[in-house]
Amino acid sequence: MIKKVLVLGGGSAGFLAALALKVKLPQLQVDLIHSKDLGIIGVGEGSTLALTDFLHRYLGISLRKFFTTAQPTWKLGLRFLWGPRDHFHYTFSNHQLLGKVDGLRKQKGFYCWEEMLDEDPFSALMERNRVFERQPNGNPAIHTTLAYHFENEKFVRFLSEYAQAVGVSVSDDQMIEAQRGEQGIKALRFASGRVESADLYIDCSGFASALLGGSLGEGFVPYDRTLFCDRAVVGGWTRSSEPIKPYTACETMQSGWCWQIEHETRINRGYVYSSGFISDDASEREFREKNPLITDTRIVKFTSGRYENFWVGNVVAIGNAGGFVEPLEATALGVIAFQSRTLVEILRDGDLEATPFRRDQYNALHRRNWDSIRDFLAVHYRFNTRVDSTFWRHCQEHCELAGAVAPLECYQENGPSSYYEQTVFDRPDQFGFAGYFAMLIGQKVPCKNPYQPTADERRIWENARGQHAAFATLGLTVPQTLAAIRSPKWQWS
């Protein structure tokens, strides 16, 4: 029976896990111990719908509190400067490419080969740097079918304050030894001299994986046959007159790709690259040539992959302590939310008893989830023809598709039809055919017998795109929306 939980690490993973445990299982004693000297990875972050749902629906965090402290901006999706098109969008809309328009025989994806832009309202808003529909009274129609951009330090500060407010004990100390026991970890010894024990330990120690990988020696499964990037040079600059864009931009570079994350007063950029194809100095030069306003930079090294198991004995690793993939789809925070949520639900369903069966099911679920992210990223690398470089030719020839083979073959045989989704995906997949079709059509990956719309269908489709464009033109920008929610007259629903 679990009564006390000790969370090791105080980044976003540690505080999100602690919050979930304490909010949903208030009878638990939840202690979080982290070292402020170790700091956090202070880069701009983007999220996905999974985090939005976790924060506001599962944990019940109000929008008012979140925007007051974390100060995020909004993200409707990703803009890809990728493949043969000038650019295309992968949106968080519920119906991108899969929905139907009255008068058309096929789903929308069949009509997007020549032009993808404005295929849904989110894409139209993104194209015009608008974020929300304008209501008749002029206010933004705020909704939560979107994600966020935020500065990591502000986000973690918000989580820390909220966690303590709901009863999580937070203290500053550095672990120097993990004492082994029959169940896995017996106790942790800290620099202050204190020794703490618990029924369950949550390893949120980041890339160090101090408990799972370090003390318990769990095996690591690399993704190096699919994902070749292993470093990022990170920088940014203070915003001046640049518009605040409601999306993360992903731009192809010579030996990888570059993100752009939008904050209210700062623009964050990062070049994710493969050290096997470009040196640190050369990547820095290419990065600065592309972004001359960048000030200070630093290099972050990483390894894409996951541990074989995430819950071993009385240790559960959440976040980077259990696995990591490069941030091409900004999945890190969504994974943390999913891991935290399933841990809570397993404990709640089992009346706080951790059994081998429950651990096995947790591990199987999250192995599949991590692998599904790798599979989806494979499609980004295998088919990107935008830059003809040694790195990208290597990706086209050697990037292992792994679990992406089945959805790819279905697309090549049937085009962007979602009819076979339940049989192609043998597990819940956060991307599904909507995500795969966005990347495959966006990169103009051919399929057999592409559909040829009639003249009437082309007219109907262009009319639908025009309606989306007209809708978006009237929308509000990010600065206009920020001004609205900061007005004394604003009322959060």
Tell me briefly what this model is:
The chain is of the alpha+beta class. The protein has helices at 12-24, 49-58, 63-69, 121-127, 152-165, 210-215, 280-290, 332-349, 356-382, 390-398, 405-414, 421-424, 432-442, 455-473, 478-485, and strands at 4-8, 29-34, 44-46, 73-75, 77-81, 88-91, 147-151, 169-172, 175-181, 184-190, 195-196, 200-203, 220-222, 231-238, 248-253, 256-262, 266-273, 298-301, 305-307, 311-312, 315-317, 323-324. The strands form five sheets. The chain has a seven-stranded mixed sheet. Strands 8-2-1-12-21-20 form a six-stranded mixed sheet.
Q: Show unreliable segments.
A: none
Based on CA atoms alone, the radius of gyration comes out at 23 Å
**In CATH terms, what is the fold-level topology of the domain at 4-73 and 148-224 and 304-373?**
FAD/NAD(P)-binding domain
How big a fraction of the residues is strand? 15-25%
| Nearest-integer average pLDDT | 96
Category from helices, strands and their pairing = alpha+beta
The number of helical segments is 15
Please report the first level of CATH classification, the CATH class of the domain at 4-73 and 148-224 and 304-373: Alpha Beta
The named CATH superfamily of the domain at 4-73 and 148-224 and 304-373: FAD/NAD(P)-binding domain
Shape, principal axes of CA atoms: globular
* N→C terminal distance: 40 Å
- Strand order across the largest sheet: 6-5-15-16-17-14-18
Please bin the fraction of helical residues: 25-40%
CATH architecture type of the domain at 4-73 and 148-224 and 304-373: 3-Layer(bba) Sandwich
Oligomerization status of the protein chains: single chain
What is the number of strand segments? 22
Main sheet: strands, sense, barrel: 7 strands, mixed
